[in-house]
Design goal:
The chain contains ten helices and eight strands. The longest helix has 18 residues. With about 300 residues, the chain is of the alpha/beta class. The strands form two sheets. The protein has a five-stranded mixed beta sheet, sandwiched between helices. It is elongated and about 75 Å long. A hairpin with a 6-residue loop joins strand 2 and strand 3.
Length: about 300
């Protein structure tokens, strides 16, 4: 019988239940092989036998493996209990949690905490999201707060949509539904249009500001309405971008308040985490924890952490 994750509504309940690594392993086994048919991660053989040491033996390839092989926990050097605590903290903190805080809470090094958090962030996949109906589009620019630098180190001409010291991120949100956000090289029309067509279904109504990068939407498979921010227009009937701008506000507070600094190289990982948190905002902590646990049953290697687009 599967463990009911609804009971995990607080960090205390997680720590109280998962008090040994054996219980963590039992939970992983229950969700990997719910019908009891243990499948070999090496050759795909079924009905593997349990050995006395708790590992499994595949009858086809005669290889031994433990329950963590083929998951995010494979070859981990830290306790599974700490992994479960990390996943719960990431899922319940509304603005995220830093590697320094994880290091203190779980008594591991900051380097290990950072690496494990990056592993967790690689599990967030936005490519399966489809948007339709009424969709708001907008772009944000992350980094490059020149006012915080010494005058001798400031870069000129970084205001507005400049990408000299900032990285652009393009976002789309279906009203009352799912959000998608992607780091982009620039915000030109030939960059944004393919992303819109990948995620937004034809026939949808798209709302944007008057930025020239959206002009290609006028004669397209979408209905396009704009709100003129430069003219101090913020809501004109149904034309507004308040939802996507609200997400940018949450994300920027997360970056500046929790992480303080995010490199352009790993920015998409932090965006993915924020999008996951936004898309599950109506769920209870236990439901988000279960979703993260299910995703953790995928393989993530050191190369996956270090190799980013």
């Amino acid at each position: 019988m599967k463990i009911d994750f609804e009971q995990f509504d607080s960090l205390f309940s997680v720590m109280e239940y998962f008090n040994t690594d054996d219980i963590c392993k039992q939970t992983i086994a229950q969700y990997r092989w719910p019908d009891g048919d243990v499948i070999c991660p090496y050759c795909g053989g079924h009905h593997c036998n349990v050995c006395k040491d708790g590992r499994y033996l595949c009858k086809r390839c005669n290889r031994k493996f433990n329950v963590t092989v083929g998951t995010i926990f494979e070859n981990t050097k830290i306790s599974l209990r700490k992994w479960f605590i990390m996943m719960y903290l990431v899922s319940c903190h509304k603005k995220g949690v830093s590697s320094h805080q994880i290091s203190r809470d779980c008594k591991i090094t900051q380097k290990t905490a950072w690496n494990n958090l990056q592993k967790i962030r690689t599990l967030y996949n936005q490519d399966m999201n489809d948007l339709e109906g009424e969709v708001e589009c907008d772009e944000a620019y992350i980094g490059g707060r020149e006012k915080n630098k010494h005058e001798s180190k400031r870069t000129e001409g970084t205001q507005g949509r400049s990408t000299k010291t900032k990285t652009p991120v393009f976002g789309m949100v279906e009203r009352g539904g799912t959000l998608v956000a992607k780091k982009v090289q620039n915000t030109q029309g030939n960059t944004l249009s393919p992303i819109i067509r990948k995620f937004v279904k034809p026939g949808s109504r798209i709302y944007t500001d008057e930025y020239i990068g959206y002009h290609s939407l006028y004669d397209s498979e979408y209905t396009h309405a704009i709100v003129h921010h430069n003219a101090k227009e913020f809501v004109v009937g149904k034309a507004y971008t308040n939802n996507i701008e609200g997400f940018w506000g949450l994300f920027k507070r997360s970056v500046f308040g929790i992480y303080h600094s995010v490199s352009a190289k790993y920015l998409q990982r932090y965006v993915d985490e924020a999008v996951f948190r936004y898309n599950t905002r109506e769920q209870q902590e236990s439901a988000r924890f279960l979703e993260m646990f299910r995703r953790s049953l995928n393989v993530v290697s050191y190369k996956d952490v270090r190799n980013v687009a």
